[in-house]
Amino acid sequence: MCGIIGYIGSRNAVSIMLEGLKRLEYRGYDSAGIAFHTDKGLEVVRCKGKIRELAAIVESRNLFSRAGIGHTRWATHGKPSEENAHPHRSDHIVIVHNGIIENYLSLRKKLLDKGYVFTSDTDTEVLCHLIRDYAEDLPLEDAVRAALREVKGAYAIAVVSEKEPNKIVGVRKDSPLVVGLGEGEFFVASDVPAFLSHTRNVMFLDDEEMVVITPEGVLVTTLDGTLVQKEVTAITWSPAMAEKGGYRHFMLKEIFEQPRAVSDTMRSRFSPETGEVNLEEFGLSQELLAGIKKVYIVACGTSWHAGLIAKYMIEELARLPVEVDIASEFRYRDPLIGSDNLMIVITQSGETADTLAAQREAKIRGARTLTICNVVGSTSAREADAVFYTHSGPEIGVASTKAFLTQVMSLYLLAIALGQTRDVVSRDRSKELLQELLLLPGKIERTLTAEEQIRAIARDYFKARGFIYLGRGINFPIALEGALKLKEISYIHAEGYPAGEMKHGPIALIDEELPVVVLAPRDKLHEKIVSNIQEVNSRGGKVIAIANESNGEVCDISRTCILVPDTNPYLQPMLLVIPLQILAYHIGVLRGCDVDQPRNLAKSVTVE
Ligand code: AGP
Fold first, then answer.
1. By the 8 A CB rule, do 45 and 265 touch?
2. Other CB atoms closer than 10 Å to residue 264's CB: what's the count?
């Protein structure tokens, strides 16, 4: 996620902003920049790379300023580069922005027609020119208001003008923005850690609220100008805790960021009214897809689990055969892949060695490659024929959670798009599938409310010698994912198994000591999974069931159970996995494991 900092006061804004951006580094970024007022006017300095490089540029000039804004960028539109770095400038207006402007292309065209010249690929520059356009006749805050009335999307912005050097205007919608109240100095930031070392008095802006900051103080209004009385919160977190947003670990923070990660990733990718998925978001054309006879998917670890789920989605919704491989296997077998195949590469980091090798192997054999990736400009993204970026923001915890959910969601959209292209999914069916997707963030929120119940379950089972996870159909990969989450952060051995396989061996493991997690949603295989639960019960096993709210009777035949909201069978895995993420997290914490940096693991496996 990008980072924002703004300062007005009597101390040196340049050093305060550099320090604030350093405190936001944990969020992950690929470029940085600051804008500051001096007696020579409003200056902008930015660079690709790390803040230390930015500091080297400005510190050599021994600058002093009393007001400015700064930014660390996590690229979503446009590759990491100096031109795409924030702050962006349009004449006397300078802006920093977090979020996604959905209608930036139409606004860009309108501004080009008015003669504005663009120097970047970003949606932010469009907003900058739009504000500049209104600032011709309006004070800064009114120009910002007028511009935002034309904007669709998510934003947290801080804007300054060379003509009004003692003013910062901030606005938020679906992306956080906070205000720090110091002694005769004021801050605006995307996150508390940016200024926590200077003040603990914070105002949390709500959506569509604007703050106007001057040396005299702060004024908060709604976007239509109505004054808002905001309460001031005294933050008690330590700086280290503040980086985690008050959560104990990044992993837990990222589990709870999933509703927003899914919302951000679906934003502007489809129209629920028309049932149309924006194929160009995948970088794929109708004619390319029409020639595809079979889809291959390669990935590693959790991303491979997303690929297994995609097989069910694409084969059922698009009636296209799908072959899913673990990348380290694909790269060494002699795959029958060729020019009439699409290879989907799933990788959060975009740097996993085995996945890159498999992607290159497919390309050599003539397949078109589409990568589903969370890092703009990563190797996989640069080498693929087409890229679909998830927008989950940087995932700091080694155990993948929010990235996995956005991968599955992206594959759901792709399956619908493929089904539409092949006239297998009707418009009405597509609208139905997309309407249900719009409800997903709210259902994820509701699922997260079970955390305390799941923590209690973790307390009952954290000493277990091993676990088995069972699932059927599209939820079998979630059994694998739940087992992997537990293994990698608690070091307890765990296996994911197709529930129908129990009789072929694993049932020998069942006894009073072995917790068995069973994914039991109300779907076409429900009766089968219920009989699997009975099999486990009859051998004294302890069943932890994850079921739907509509089939609570599963709780009557389970030692304990967690209920998740109902949804369609394709989105169900995204809800069932959440209790398993939380269960693994709390068991890992109870066992004293380093859940953010588990032993022997790296966030990105860039070597074989
Ligand atoms: C997931 O919790 C693990 N950290 C690991 O399996 C990971 O999914 C795998 O290494 C693939 O990483 P990638 O998505 O960045 O390619």
1. no
2. 25
pLDDT digits (tens, 9 = 90+) for 462-502: 999 999 999 999 999 999 999 999 999 999 999 999 999 99
User: SS3 sequence, 549-606?
Assistant: HHHHHHHHHCCEEEEECCCCCCCHHHHHHHHHHHHHHHHHHHCCCCCCCCCCCCCCCC
- Tell which phi-psi region holds residue 248, choosing left (phi > 0), alpha (psi between -120 and 50) or beta: alpha
**Could you report the per-residue pLDDT of 383-431, keeping only the tens digit for each?**
999 999 999 988 889 999 999 999 999 999 999 999 998 999 999 999 9
Determine the 3-state secondary structure of 395 from DSSP.
Answer: coil
Please tell me the distance from the alpha carbon of residue 298 to that of residue 380, in angstroms, as a whole number.
Answer: 12
Q: Which residue has the tokens 């051998």?
A: 539
Please say whether the beta carbons of 533 and 545 come within 8 A: yes
Q: Taking residues 181-188, what's their average pLDDT? A: 97
For residue 77, what pLDDT is reported?
67
Distance 399 CA to ligand 1 centre (A): 7
Q: How far apart are CA 492 and CA 522, in angstroms?
A: 29
Question: What number does the ligand 1 atom closest to the CA of 352 have?
Answer: 16
For residue 520, the CA-to-ligand 1 centroid distance in Å is 26
Virtual CA dihedral for 582, 588, 591, 594, nearest 10 degrees?
Answer: -140
Q: CB of 348 closer than 6 A to ligand 1?
A: yes
Instruction: Give, using CA atoms, the residue closest to atom 7 of ligand 1.
Output: 301
CB of 422 closer than 8 Å to CB of 294:
no
Ligand 1 centroid vs 346 CA: distance in angstroms? Answer: 10
Rounded alpha-carbon distances, angstroms, from residue 311 to 10, 305, 361, 482, 572: 60, 10, 21, 19, 15
* Residue nearest to ligand 1 atom 3, measured at CA: 399
Residue 254 in contact with ligand 1 by CB distance below 6 A: no
CA 294 to chain CA mean position, Å: 29
Which residue, judged by its Cα, is nearest atom 4 of ligand 1? 399
Which ligand 1 atom sits nearest the alpha carbon of residue 300? 11
Q: Which of 605, 606, 607, 608 gets mutated to test ligand 1 (max ligand atoms within 8 A of its CB)? A: 605
Scanning 149-293, the segments in alpha helix (DSSP H) are 239-243, 250-256, 258-266, 286-290
* Residue 560 CA to ligand 1 centre (angstroms): 30
What is the mean predicted confidence (pLDDT) over 163-167?
A: 97
374 residue type, one letter = N
Structure tokens at 569: 């069978």
Task: List residues with catalytic annotation.
Answer: 2, 603
Let me know: does 392 contact 261? Beta carbons within 8 Å.
yes
Distance CA 177, CA 163 (A): 24
Three-state secondary-structure class, residue 144:
helix
Q: Is 170 a residue whose pLDDT tops 70?
A: yes
Whether the Cβ atoms of residue 474 and residue 529 lie closer than 8 Å to each other: no
**Tokens describing residue 545:** 């069931």
What is the average per-residue pLDDT within 109-131?
95
Taking the centre of ligand 1 as the mean of its atom positions, its distance from the CA of residue 473, in whole angstroms, is 22
> Residue of the nearest CA to atom 5 in ligand 1?
301
Residue 302 Cβ contacting ligand 1 at under 6 Å: yes
Output the residue whose Cα is nearest ligand 1's atom 16.
347
